[in-house]
Amino acid sequence: MKKIATYVVLALASLLTLAPVIWTVLSSMRPPAESLSPDGSFVPSSLDLSSYQAVFEEVDMWLLILNSVLVTALIAVGQMVSAAMAGYVFARFEFRSKNLLFALILATMMVPMQVTIVPVFMLIRGMNLADTLLALILPAIPTAFGTFLMRQYFLGLPAELGEASQIDGASPWRTFASIYAPLAVPGMAIVGILAFNYHWNEFFRPLILTISEQNFTLPLGLVSLQGNMGTGSVATVLAGVVISMIPAFLVFVFGQRTLREGLTAGSHR
């Protein structure tokens, strides 16, 4: 009986979570005239994929996708590398004010992005990178959460491996690159997957740091579809939303095993 109650609760929670997504997908396939069904029906009376074609006709969808893939992939790789190196230093090296510096890095997680966006914009403009894709990539590579995560991950790895490599004459960089980094791949994968999902859907920074439509990412470019709201063609807007969800969904589907193994790795040591 207890197990049945658990399944019922989980099913209800899943339904509440997935209902908006299901409604978005189904509504994107409504005929434009029925974008917002007056009778409130959940399932469309007929399936019409013309809204997906309209998305590619009204915005340069391929350019938006290319920009988003380029920006998000480079940020994810950059965070994986920088977080792994910083986490390794904080986990395995002793130096003056290490704990204070680590505390300051963690403290940056408490500062809202809206507070730092103006200084970041001024720095980007001073580097002549305003309205470029690099303006979105470079400031996002340092990650306080990723540094914390990788530090904890490296602390869970045997210190004897590093000591043995030092006895064999390996440099600190060789020890990291040849021994610890391969063992930390699951942790790095967590950082990469979380970074991809977050920055793929990011809207605020691209809105501030880019001006030209040729540098827009997918969430920012889809704003131009809101013109359809005035005509009642909500299906076109929702079709763009569905297209934008596909890459993040695929990353989660194919990366969930790595994500799960990385999050539970510490409990097996």
From TrEMBL:
It is a multi-pass membrane protein. GO terms for cellular component: plasma membrane. Residues 65-255 form the ABC transmembrane type-1 domain. Keywords: Cell membrane, Membrane, Transmembrane, Transmembrane helix, Transport. It is found in: Cell membrane. The chain crosses the membrane at residues 61-88, 100-121, 133-154, 175-196, 234-254. SUPFAM superfamilies: MetI-like. GO terms for biological process: transmembrane transport. Belongs to the binding-protein-dependent transport system permease family. This is Carbohydrate ABC transporter permease. It comes from Arachnia propionica.
